[in-house]
Amino acid sequence: MTTTLQKSPERALPALGGRKRPKSSVRLSTIMLHLLLAVGGFLMVAPFLWMMLTSFKSLPQILSNPLGLFPNPWNFNNYADAWNAAPFGLAYWNSIYICVLTVAGTIVTASMAAYAFARIEFKGSKFLFVLFLATQMVPQQVTIVPLYMIFSKLGWVDTHLALIIPAVLCNPFAVFLVRQFIRSLPVELEEAARLDGAGRWRILFSIVMPNIKPGLAALSIVVALGAWNNFFLPLIVLNSENQFTVPLLLSQFTGQYGGVNYSVIMAASAISIVPMLIAFLIGNRRILNSMAMSGMGGS
Amino acid sequence: MTAVLAKTGLPGAPVVERAEAAWRKRDRWWGLVFVSPQLAGMCAFVLLPFAVGLVLAFAQWDGLTEITWVGLANFQAQLADPVFLRSILNTLGLALITVPVGLALSLLIAVALDRLRGRTGYLLLYFAPVMTSSIAISLVWQQILRADGPLNQAFFRVFGIPGPDWLGDPHFVLLAVSIVTIWSSLGLNVIIFLAGLQGINSNVLEAARVDGAGSLRTMMAIRLPLLSPVVFFSTVVAVISSFQTFDVVFVLTKNGGPENSARTIVYQIYDEGFRHFQFGMASAASIILLVLTLVVTAVQLGLQRRFVHYES
Fold it and tell me: Among A143, A224, B174, B192, which is least packed by CB within 10 angstroms?
C-alpha cells in the first residue's frame, strides 16, 4: 500500500470516488447498505442544513414557531447584519493572506529540509531527522506559555508574524510527508541534471519540486486547511479586533455581536464556512486524496 | 552511478572521482543549509519553549513581577485541585468515548463504502465537517443542543419525553462534546481507512476467493489484518488529538461547562495561563498533559506488537 503511494501520489487511490468492478445484479444487502449510508450521510450534513435554514429566519419566527423547519418568509437581512456586526471583511483578508503566506513558505522550507533528509548525506542527518519526528509528539499546548513569552520578547504579540513564521519554519509533519514524495522519485533524474552541471539548489527547485507537484498540492491543502481553521494560537496571540482571523472573530459572536440572535449567529457561521465548502465541492477529488495521503504520511 | 563510472577504470575515472569528492564535500554543508530554516524554527518554537516550560513549571510567575522558585508546589497544587483532577478525568473520558466509537464508526463506513459503487457522493457528505472550522461547527451545535433546540424537539416528537439540557446539565455536557467531536472527525478517518482498504493488493483477495473464503472471512482474515497498521496509526493520532480538545469546549461551554463538567486539560492550561496569568501553574499542567500523552502512546506502541500486522 505504502509503495503504491510512493510511486504515484496522484493516482494513489484510483478507486477513491471512482467505480469498482461492476456487480451483475443489485442485491438486497446493497440496497440496505445504500439506505444506511444515506441516513448516516444525512445526519452528517443535517447540522449544516439546519444552519442554512435558521440563517434565513427572523428572530420572532424562531421564538414563535420553534418547530418550523423552513423560513417563512425568507429573511436575507441576517447575512447583512452578521457581516456588518463585526469586521468580517477585514477578518477574511487576514485569514486569506495568512493562509497564502503560510502555504507558500511551508512548501519552500519543508521541501528544502525534506530534500536534505531524503537525498543528501551529511553529518547528523539521521539524528536531526529523528529529532524532527520526536518534536511532532509535543502538543502545541505544552509549549504555549513560553511561546507566548518568546513572541512578546520579539514584539510579535498581536501581530500575524506569530501565526505565520512559526508555522512556516516549524512543520515536521510537512518535512516528513515531502521526504516520502522525494524518496519515490528515481535518483537517476537528479544525476542526469548533475551531469549537466546543476548544483543541489538547482536540482531541488528545477528538478525535484516540479516532479512532486501532486504531493506538494496535497500538502498545500492540508496546510491551508490548518491555517484557515486554526483557533488556539490566534486566540492567545491576537488582541485587537482588526487583527482577528475568521474563526477568532466568529468565536466572539455568541457574546459580543450576536447575543441570543440565533439567526445572525448562524448567518455568521455560514459566512465563515461556505467558501471552504464551495472549494471542497470544486476540488473534492484532490482534497480527499490529499487527506488520505496525509493520514498515511505518518505511518 | 558516479561510483560505477569511477570503478570502470576508464581514463575519465580519476576526474570523476575528484568531482565526486568535491560534490560530497559540498553536500556536507548543503545538507545543513537546506535543513537550517526548519531546524531554526524547531529550535526557536519547539525546543526552546519546551525547555523554558520545563523550568517554568517549577516557578511562580504572573508575567509581571519577579519569578519565584517554588519547586514542586505547582504540581502539588494542581494534583490537589479538584478542578484540575476533574479536567484530567474529563480528558480521559473524552478519549474513552470518542476514540473507540469514532474509529469503529469510521471503520464500518469505510468497509461499507469500499464495496460500493458511486461512493463519491457519500464521501462528500461525510467529509464536509472536516473542512469546516471547529468554531463554526461548535456554534451550530450549540444551537442544535439547546434544551429547546431541534435535537430535543425531534426527540420529544418521537418519544414524547423531553430530552436533556445537553449543555446545562453536568451529566450530559461531556457527552455533547463527544458527539460533536466524533461527528466532526468521522470523515477524516473514513477517508484514511478507505484509502487503506483500496490499497490492499487485489491478488491477495483473489487468492482468498479462489481458496473459497467468503466475504466475511476475507474481511476478518485479510482485509482487517492488512488494514491494522492504518487503524493503529489512526488510533494513536485520535488519542493524541482528543487529549488536546479545546475549541469545542471553549465555544460549546462558556466556562468549561457547569461544575467544570467539560473542562479539559488544555482548557485548564488556557484558563491558568491566559485568564489568570498563572504561568507556572499552566506550565505544570502542560507537563502533566505531556506525560499523560507519552504514557498512553507508549502503552499503544507496546500493544502494537501484539495486534498490528505488518507486511514484511
Answer: A224
Q: Report the C-alpha gap between B227 and A174 in whole angstroms.
A: 24
Is residue B36 within 8 A of residue B46, CB to CB? The reply is no
- Contact B290/A139, CB-based, under 8 Å? yes
pLDDT in tens, B63-89: 888 889 999 999 999 999 999 999 999
Q: Which of B46, B273, B10 is nearest to A236 (CA)?
A: B273
Non-local (6+) Cβ contacts of B250 within 8 A are A231, A235, A251, B138, B267, B270
The answer to whether the Cβ–Cβ distance between B123 and A120 falls below 8 Å is no
- Any residues with CB less than 8 A from the CB of A30 and at least 6 apart, and which? A23, B116
Please report how the helices B173-198 and A284-297 are oriented relative to each other, as an axis angle in degrees rounded to 10.
90
Contact assignment for A116 to B35 by CB distance below 8 Å: yes
Return the amino acid letter for A250.
L
ipTM of predicted complex: 0.87
Selected for mutation to probe chain A from B27, B34, B148 (highest A CB count within 10 Å) is: B34
Tell whether B31 lies on the interface with A, counting CB pairs under 8 A: yes
Q: Side chain identity at B26, as an amino acid letter?
A: R
With residue B69 as reference, give the H or E element that holds it: strand B68-69
CB contact under 8 A, B49 and A143: yes
**Sign of the torsion formed by the C-alpha atoms of B6, B7, B8 and B11:** positive
User: Given CB atoms, is B61 within the 8 Å cutoff of chain A?
Assistant: no
CA distances from A194 to A104, A119, B13, B16, B25 (A): 27, 13, 16, 12, 15
- Per the CB < 8 A criterion, the answer to whether B227 and B193 are in contact is yes
Taking 70 as the threshold, does the pLDDT of residue B229 lie above it? Answer: yes
Chain-chain contact of A292 with B191 (C-beta, under 8 angstroms): yes
Of chain B, the percentage scoring pLDDT greater than 90 comes to 60
Whether residue B298 lies within 8 A of chain A, CB to CB, comes out as: no
Rounded (10°) angle between helices B224-243 and B173-198? 150
pLDDT above 70 coverage of chain B, percent: 95
Task: Please report, for residues A7, A114, A131, A222, B38, the alpha-carbon distance to residue A111 in angstroms, rounded to integers and kept in the order given.
Answer: 18, 5, 17, 15, 10
Write down the pTM of the prediction.
0.87
State yes or no: pLDDT of B298 exceeds 80.
yes
Report yes or no: B94 and B242 within 8 Å, Cβ to Cβ: yes
- Are the CB atoms for A259 and B145 separated by under 8 Å? no
Look at residue B305 in the predicted model and tell me its pLDDT. Answer: 83
* B301 in reach of chain A (CB within 8 A): no
Residues of B whose CB is below 8 A from A209: none
What is the structure's pLDDT at A3? 38
Contacts 24+ apart (CB under 8 A), B288-291: B288/B75, B288/B78, B288/B79, B288/B88, B289/A139, B289/A141, B289/A142, B289/B243, B289/B265, B290/A138, B290/A139, B290/A142
